[in-house]
TrEMBL record:
It comes from the Bacteria. Residues 62-83 are annotated as: Disordered. Residues 6-89 form the Pyridoxamine 5'-phosphate oxidase N-terminal domain. Coiled coil: none annotated. Pfam families: PNPOx_N. The keyword Transport does not apply. GO terms for molecular function: coenzyme F420 binding; oxidoreductase activity, acting on the CH-CH group of donors. Keywords: Oxidoreductase. This is Pyridoxamine 5'-phosphate oxidase N-terminal domain-containing protein. GO terms for cellular component: cytosol.
């Protein structure tokens, strides 16, 4: 099983982004496989989006809902999805997380609007696109 398969099968992953001074900022998030990458969904103006916009370097590790890791962190590179890709990620999350996913996405859309959240695409280091 590849790192991508293992992480995509987790209910939560710990996404760690990095501040300008190099300090790590870990956050537990939902994740889903999106082709040859891992996709997560977050608030558009969150700190992690700002950090990824500046420096896409991240690590991803399996974790529990509180962010306690229970496996090795894997380095990768994150990019911010465009609106069309973000819609696709929302659909993948609805499928994986079923009712709770649908309710969370609906609540978020009602609170923040369609553009209030964004998908993040994470390509794991060492993963060859289309060959994992």
């Amino acid at each position: 099983m590849t790192d991508l398969d293992r992480l995509a099968a987790e209910k939560y992953v710990l996404l760690t982004t990095f501040r300008k001074d190099g300090r790590a900022v870990p956050t537990p998030v939902w994740a889903v496989r999106d082709g040859d990458a891992l996709a997560v969904w977050t608030v558009s103006d969150s700190g992690k989006v700002k950090r990824i916009r500046r420096d896409g370097r991240v690590t991803v590790a399996p974790c529990d809902v509180r962010g306690r890791p229970h496996g090795e962190a894997v380095p990768g590179h994150a990019t911010i999805d465009d609106p069309e890709s973000t819609r696709r990620v929302r659909g993948l999350l609805k499928h994986k997380y079923r009712l709770i996913g649908r309710l969370s996405l609906l609540g978020s859309r009602l609170r923040r609007g369609e553009s209030g959240t964004v998908g993040l695409r994470i390509v794991l280091d060492g993963a060859t696109p289309g060959h994992d």
